[in-house]
Predict the structure.
Amino acid sequence: MDSSPTSHTAAPVPALTIPPLRRRYPLRRSAHYDAALADEVDTWFLSFGLPTPQQQAYRRTNHAYLAAVCWPSADRRTLADLARLAAAVMARDHEIDSAPHPRALAAARSFLNDARHHFTPHADSDPRWAPVFINLWQRIATHRTDRFMDRLADAIATYLTGCLTWLQTTANDSPPAGLDAYLATRRTTIAQRVDHLLTEMSLGLDLSPAALAHSLTKRLHALDVERTILVQDLLSAPKELADGETENLLTVLAAERQCTFAEALPDALRLYEQAMDAYDHAHHQLLHTELGRQPPIRAYLNALNDFNTGLIEWTTHSPRYARTAQADWTTPDEIIQPADAALPGSSGRADR
């Protein structure tokens, strides 16, 4: 899911061009993706009557395509739920991001409170957003374990806690000083730990505590967070910098090196390649363990790379970031024909 902390603004800067990020894995797209799926997801979200100033622009965001290239192996029902969740979280995040600081804090606290209640009705539910997330949560719960739903709610709450902490500590318009401090903060405000759960969901898996606690799994997840920060910050930089936003890797590097954003760009691209190298090395190590040889784990590791490629594809071409009237999606390397059945060795609902 797209995510970034609420940003403070400064004077807009000259347009910056980011070269296409080098994809290391094939672009795979679900065969379930079509106009009907996109319309189904958008119609569902818009039916709740939340403020959507430009409905056509909202539809061009194409959350169904995002889900189809990030989680191409999902069955159709799961793919639709993943797209709905992406649409709902992104829209609620955007409302927080665009609000004045006091209102943003209140909205973030409300979102966090809903997550801590596992998106069930409670005394302080937001009357506008509660119906969206209650409906969505009930949809997902019909085909997921209670344990998985608890893990997902906890992951969303942890992500929102990081965003709220960011909001509270940047009230004085003081961004983190230096690259290390920025990345430490950014690791808490990115939703990638949530997306790890959604990747499991796309495959009908619920990874066991033992698999998640394996040292190489933990390292791989940490490195996946790192590479996703770099993808998101690089590909969103032209839009964010043009809008005068200050919370981005390039603003931090430019300040630290006392150079322009364009001059900081090669360093940022180098960090991206280094993060991808580190991830690929850890991925290779895990594949050669007893855990990594299990079919469900191999499928999960492949799916993490699908997500990486899909995120690059969607963020590069989505009107949300490209600022174009229509998306110019890339022809996929492969169309995935999901079997709409669980993986070998998984019931789709059993803890693994």
